[in-house]
Amino acid sequence: MKTLLVVYHSATGGTRQMAKAAADAAAADVTVRLLRAQDAGADDMLTADGYIFATPENLAALAGVMKDFFDRVYYAVLDRLNGRPCATLICAGSDGENAARQIARIATGWRLRVIAPPLIVCTHAQTPEAILAPKTIGANDLRRCEELGATMAAGLAAGIF
Questions:
Q1: Three-state secondary-structure class, residue 161
Q2: Sign of torsion, CA 86 89 94 95?
Q3: What is 21-90 written as a DSSP string?
């Protein structure tokens, strides 16, 4: 059975909800490993057949904990993941585009196969209080995350990705 690795960071719960929705939907067709970024390493990347990276956008950039994950594993897996599929989930207060660009550049360097545009959920959190508050992702956005997870799993299981 194929393995999907979902690596995420979440400070306020929004990204965790998105990652879990994708992971739960994928679990019907593949083995899923849902790991916090601080707990994931190069061996986790090497033993997976596909990836979903889930991050909040902080200060118009990839969250620092996710950046740390990529920094720790990047060179250890370089040229060893070529062609494997990936997708991205981003929980953002505004547009999420810069975090998406950063992950896209990492995926390009690893020569991963991006199977869908980044799925960005905008919480519209713009004040310090709203930014730091626990997040609840709406049912429609969680369904979008589930669809992405199910699509990744179906493609892995069928050998399309």
A1: coil
A2: positive
A3: HHHHHHTTTSEEEEEEGGG--HHHHHT-SEEEEEEEEETTEE-HHHHHHHHHHHHHHTTSSTT-EEEEEE
Q: Express each pLDDT in 46-105 by its tens digit.
A: 999 999 999 999 999 999 999 999 999 999 999 999 999 999 999 999 899 999 999 999
If residue 122 lies in a helix (H) or strand (E), which one and from where to where?
Answer: strand 119-122
How far, CA to CA in Å, does 109 sit from each of 67, 81, 122, 145, 150?
14, 10, 27, 25, 26
Bridge-based pairing state of the strands 119-122 and 85-92: parallel
Question: d(Cα 90, Cα 27) in Å, to the nearest integer?
Answer: 21
Are the beta carbons of 123 and 10 closer than 8 angstroms? no
* CATH 3.40.50.360 corresponds to the domain 3-158: yes
Could you tell me the pTM of the whole model? Answer: 0.97
- CA–CA separation, 153 and 50 (whole Å): 9
